[in-house]
């Protein structure tokens, strides 16, 4: 569930404001880095919200940008302080995808395309365990348990009674057919999918095999949108050792168009539920 102070979102907003101040000053990130005797990559990470930012960093940058309004400086300093607070996910220790969790926690809507695995927010505990054990066969049992707990905690966004996440998923038929765990786990998982798809804020569409070639063949992706207009939409691409976050308007637009094509080729929500139930019958026999 979203907290009053989300450190990930605070870092993004602060970074956007610092970038705006730099651009108003007509300076490049390289010029700022030279003035502060730091690397250009540090300035870039501060501006894209991927790095924790200290009040000292804010003070030094405001000095370079000659910000004279103390109210602006104080506001930015407070944002830096808020950005260093801990979100709920920090209680689980070091998490490789903590940036994504912070964004998801504060998002107003999430659109995903998945081709091989049931989206994490829709997974049952048993399915999640089977997936995690299969994807990280050398992981310690404690690490597997931690990942399961985090995944289930993330699902609170779908059940939040006051601010549920608007969730839209286009899923490939392949993930319905691949037996993860065993047939009973799959049967329970698909029934869970069908049940969740009946919720007013959840839309689920199946992309059947006979849809042929489609834009999703590039791979899975997610598009996050936020309540505050200051927070630009983000495209999230998950990797094995690192993740990619796309925030440029052209990139987000390209993936948005791809998603519209996927929705158009997929079965309707009602047809998808019927399709899922037919697959369930196959596991039951």
From TrEMBL:
Q: Which CDD domains match?
A: HTH_XRE (cd00093)
InterPro entries linked? Cro/C1-type_HTH (IPR001387), DUF5753 (IPR043917), Lambda_DNA-bd_dom_sf (IPR010982)
Annotated HTH cro/C1-type domain residues:
18-73
- Which residues, by range, are in coiled-coil regions? none
Pfam families cross-referenced by the UniProt entry: DUF5753 (PF19054), HTH_31 (PF13560)
Q: Which domain of life is it from?
A: Bacteria
Q: What is the name of the protein in this document?
A: Helix-turn-helix transcriptional regulator
């Amino acid at each position: 569930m979203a907290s009053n102070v989300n450190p990930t979102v605070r870092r993004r907003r602060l970074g956007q404001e610092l970038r705006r101040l730099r651009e108003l000053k007509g300076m490049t990130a390289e010029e700022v880095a030279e003035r502060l005797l730091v690397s250009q990559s540090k300035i870039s990470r501060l501006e894209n919200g991927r790095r924790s930012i200290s009040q000292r960093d804010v003070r030094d940058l405001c000095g370079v940008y000659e910000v004279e309004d103390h109210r602006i400086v104080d506001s930015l300093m407070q944002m830096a302080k808020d950005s260093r607070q801990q979100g709920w996910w920090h209680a689980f220790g070091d998490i490789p995808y903590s940036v994504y969790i912070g964004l998801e926690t504060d998002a107003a809507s999430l659109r995903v395309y998945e081709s091989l695995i049931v989206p994490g927010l829709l997974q049952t505990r048993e399915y999640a365990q089977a997936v995690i054990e299969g994807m990280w066969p050398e992981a310690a049992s404690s690490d597997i348990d931690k990942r399961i707990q985090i995944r289930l905690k993330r699902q609170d966004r779908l059940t939040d009674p006051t601010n549920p996440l608007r969730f839209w998923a286009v899923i490939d038929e392949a993930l319905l057919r691949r037996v993860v765990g065993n047939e009973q786990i799959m049967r329970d998982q698909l029934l869970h999918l069908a049940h969740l798809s009946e919720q007013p804020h959840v839309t689920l569409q199946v992309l059947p095999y006979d849809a042929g070639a489609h834009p999703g063949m590039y791979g899975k992706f997610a598009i996050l949108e936020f309540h505050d207009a200051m927070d630009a939409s983000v495209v999230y691409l998950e990797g094995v050792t690192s993740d990619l976050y796309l925030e440029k308007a052209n990139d987000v637009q390209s993936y948005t168009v791809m998603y519209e094509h996927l929705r158009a080729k997929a079965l309707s929500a009602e047809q998808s539920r019927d399709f899922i139930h037919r697959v369930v019958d196959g596991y039951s026999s």
